[in-house]
Design a protein that fits this description.
Elements: H1 2-25, H2 27-33, E1 40-49, E2 54-63, E3 69-75, H3 86-94, E4 98-102, H4 119-138, H5 143-146, E5 154-164, H6 166-172, E6 179-180, E7 187-188, E8 197-201, E9 222-229, E10 245-246, E11 258-267, H7 285-303, H8 317-321, E12 326-330
Parallel strand pairs: 3-4, 3-5, 5-8, 8-9, 9-11
Antiparallel strand pairs: 1-2, 2-4, 6-7, 6-10, 11-12
Helix pairs in contact: 1-3, 2-7, 3-7, 4-6
């Protein structure tokens, strides 16, 4: 009885706090969708993956009422964790999405550091991460039994993959990108057809682990958000060599919507606003705002069948929204 009471008190406190978060970060998206932002609930739990004999920590953010809502599965940057992207996740939740953020095996919270790791080690990490994303989708049906507030909130038929930095590479390799080593001996990546769209925060092609413009191989709608300083701490400029390229049998679909958001002077970590608060700042909250605006419109267009959501950015509108800082182009 006492546990039930404490759970109710905790849920109420989360709801009040989340309402404040929704007001702070969700106002722009509500204008895009023509509706008020939702109050949101945030929960953390571990999912047991019996097949791989591991616990997968999750942060879940979702609207407190209504539904069902489309699902976003977000993969964090290398070494980061589920808790470093609330400025994006809570904004999307307030706009009417259920957002899952796992903490992957190589997170620094476990004492690991993948910086400087050999390419074959990175491939193994990506394989584990890819399985994490698919496992979350496999587990959607059981979650309401563990979190009653999720009952009726999840629309498992509308699912978006998203990621930042290494998380973007993870999302790519679960939505259709297959890569090979130059000698053809290593091959990894596949398509989980449950994903309907893809959001890439930062440009994966800026890493030597991927080919140029790797998102060209993805057969579902894609949004890439990048900037003029979008290089991680491991690389300070365009790669001089590529460890992996497109698989020889890659098909590049020509009729897939691809949107490319470019923000001047935006760096890989948005000044520490996401992923790594320890990097030199200040946090680039303006870039966060632009990304939230455009990504929510993208989500509404392709996950909620509202193609008009992106119309507000056509022509020179994105320049006006960003005071000339951003462009949005079709690729």
């Amino acid at each position: 009885m006492r546990d039930a009471y404490l759970h109710a008190v905790r849920a109420c406190a989360i709801l009040v706090l989340s309402l404040l978060v929704a007001r702070a970060f969700g106002a722009d998206s509500s204008e895009t969708a023509g509706a008020k932002p939702h109050a949101i609930i945030v929960e953390r739990l571990d999912l047991e993956d019996r097949k791989r004999q591991k616990q997968l920590p999750l942060r879940i953010a979702w609207p407190a009422a209504g539904g069902p809502y489309p699902v976003i599965v977000f993969s964090h940057g290398g070494g980061s964790s589920r808790d470093m992207y609330d400025r994006l996740a809570d904004h999307w939740a307030a706009a009417g999405y259920v957002v899952f953020l796992p903490t992957h095996m190589e997170s620094r919270v476990y004492g690991f550091d993948v910086r400087g790791a050999a390419p074959d080690v990175i491939v193994k990490v990506l394989e584990s991460r890819r399985q994490d994303l698919s496992f979350i989708l496999d587990s959607l049906g059981e979650l309401p039994a563990r979190i009653p507030e999720l009952a009726g909130r999840i629309d498992a038929e509308r699912v978006i993959a998203a990621g930042h930095s290494m998380g973007g590479a993870t999302a790519l390799t679960v939505t259709g990108l297959v890569m090979e080593s130059p000698d053809g001996k290593e091959r990894f990546g596949y398509r989980d057809e449950r994903f309907d769209a893809l959001i890439l925060l930062t440009e994966p092609g800026n890493s030597p682990m991927a080919p140029v413009d790797p998102w060209r191989a993805i057969p579902i709608p894609v949004l890439v958000a990048t900037g003029s300083k979008d290089y991680s701490g491991q690389w300070s400029g365009p790669p001089k060599r590529r460890f992996y390229g497109f698989a020889a049998d890659t098909v590049f679909p020509a009729d897939v919507p691809r949107h490319y958001l470019f923000i001047d002077n935006m760096d890989h970590y948005l000044g520490g606003a996401v992923c790594r608060p320890d990097v030199p700042g200040p946090p680039d909250y303006d870039a966060v705002r632009i990304i939230n605006e455009v990504s929510t419109a993208f989500l509404d267009a392709y996950a909620k069948d509202q193609p008009e959501a992106l119309e507000k950015f056509e022509g020179g509108a994105i320049a006006a929204l960003s005071s000339g800082r951003a462009t949005l182009a079709a690729r």
